[in-house]
Amino acid sequence: MSQLSIFSEIGRLRAVAVHRPGPEVDRMTPSLMHDLLFDDILFGREARGEHDDFSRVLNKVADRVFDVQDMLADSLAQPRAREHFLDRFCILHKLNGQDKERLSDLDPKELAETAVAGWYEDIDNGTNYQFRFPPVPNLLFMRDPASVIGNGVSINHMATAARRPEPFILDTVLRFHPEYHIENEKQIWFDAIPSYIGGIPEHNNTIEGGDTLVLSEDILAIGISIRTTQSAVTMLAEKLRRHTQFKTVFAVLMPHDRAVMHLDTVFTQIDPEHCLVFPPFFREDNPIQSLPVIRMDLTSSSLHITLEDNFLNALKKEGHHLKPVFCGGTNRLDQEREQWTDGANAFCMAPGLILGYSRNIKTAEELEKVGYRILTTEQALSDSVDLLDGKRTMVMIAGNELSRARGGARCMTFPLQRDPL
Ligand SMILES: NC(=[NH2+])NCCC[C@H](N)C(=O)O
From ligand 1's centre to the CA of 264, what distance in Å? Predict the structure, then answer.
């Protein structure tokens, strides 16, 4: 058994889950696109190629890179897990006993694939079609449906119907996966599943992993955003106060705008000294746009709350001093363009070793200014390059298809285990 362990955004990555976009992406139609939260119809083959390169780079650093669909299949091989999953999944999708039996007949691999790709049926010789339940194309953005926080997990409550099946997949994986699973219920800091199946209105207490950043053994930053509510953050903070050693939660108040749907679309930590940010939100000289934060103190006998007017200053006061590197460079127009294509959404594989989309050229130039070498995927994968030689490095991955689904490198990863710093 391996230990779930996440106490930073930047510690050397040991184990991570991703999901290669499959038939669920190829089944997207223009009429479904908006509801399924994509901004375009992806060319699946290209998207898979981009994702494969991304996984190759991760594999060069991490000991284990899982695909969550395989993790689900490996979990479903146990009868108890299959029962747990099907019971809940059928309630979610309002499937009848007959449907459930048909799903029960599938082998674990087929069941996992159907859960992700959707249950699709051709009608009248292909002149029409229907979904018994829809595909889940956003599983590609593994960051969001669950989060490992310390040695426990949050099974997240998604804000949109399109993503509702995803926490059900993660719930089964995190309880039953042969290698990475929680040992007992006490390690679940937040659990969306009971309220989903209990029929509690979906917009209550939502929280998504793109908003949750574990900055250190003491500090978490969580966006209160278009996807994550203050009530959910408070509930999570209270659970962490009671059951963990975390000392502070900074709840960052985000604008309600699709372009900045999660905190990680405008802020990611990349090494012990730097964070990559969308500048307008972090400027002290611009109090209108700069993001205020609610500081939640977890060290006293009840949750203690104060308001701070600037996130980076508040972090500094807490001893977590980060200098901002500007996504998109110094020009506002470029900042807006590169933020939209996830320039601020870097994924950190070790302190100062990050992944980001190659299209964000101005962002890469800013990183060079603070000593980052910029490598293509090919260079990064060559035997002559040691990615763990301690040099600050950004590996550029192609994301021309992937970025159309509105997510970047951090969004596509679900870290399970990192080394302590
Ligand atoms: N952590 C993130 N920023 N995830 C981005 C998710 C993008 C996805 N299409 C959605 O709208 O939900």
Answer: 10
